[in-house]
Amino acid sequence: MNNPYIEKDVDGEKSSDVVWHQASVSHQDHCQLNGHKAAVLWFTGLSGSGKSTVANAVDLMLFQHQAKTYVLDGDNVRHGLNGDLGFSDTDRIENIRRVGEVSKLFADAGLLVSTAFISPFVADREMVRSQLPEGQFIEVFIDTPLAVCESRDPKGLYKKARAGEIKNFTGIDSAYEKPVNPEIHVQTDQKSIQACAQQVIDYLKENNYL
């Protein structure tokens, strides 16, 4: 099997004229103005697990706390920024790489940004973590059994995957690698959406993000 992780000579592809421009307003300035710490809440789980639903419930609660936030949703991003990508392993990796870079920019602006992506590979999630300062990457594992996700099937994707109409579908014919040690472990088949969202808010409060 071909390795989807392609080594690129990044330095060779960059122009020598590209220089990092230091912003006049620092990350600390943004956080101070916003009144809270910045972080990337990385919601990961199977299709139908409740990632987007919980992420948006969390975002509403944060809004009610007057926090500065944004939600990057997997489907929404594929309408624009990642509209050129498919669902091969290579394209999935590039999808997460781009989202990681955008998330880093939001966090640098002092926001609490939530990302709702299947992001099936441990290596990709850890790559995003490594790009952020210590404590800014919060992995939120939406741990919902495959059978439950398939019974929900909100977009009818599992039915199509079982019928062979969709290839490389996570959980059916493409692997999902569960988080090893997530900061937050959410089980949507055992709690209400409100309770799941509150679990995330509680973590943020207990760890002084809010």
| Gyration radius, in Å | 18 Å
User: What structural class do the secondary elements suggest?
Assistant: alpha/beta
* Shape label: globular
Number of helices: 9
Largest sheet: 5 strands, parallel
Function: Catalyzes the synthesis of activated sulfate.
Protein name: Adenylyl-sulfate kinase
Keywords: ATP-binding, Kinase, Nucleotide-binding, Phosphoprotein, Transferase
Enzyme class: transferase
Describe the structure.
Keywords: ATP-binding, Kinase, Nucleotide-binding, Phosphoprotein, Transferase. ATP binds at residues 45-52. The active site is at 119 (phosphoserine intermediate). The chain is of the alpha/beta class. It is 41% helix and 12% strand. The chain has helices at residues 10-13, 27-34, 51-64, 74-77, 89-108, 122-131, 146-152, 157-162, 193-206; strands spanning 39-44, 69-73, 112-116, 137-142, 184-186. A five-stranded parallel β-sheet has the order 2-3-1-4-5, sandwiched between helices. The longest helix has 20 residues, at 89-108. The mean pLDDT is 89.
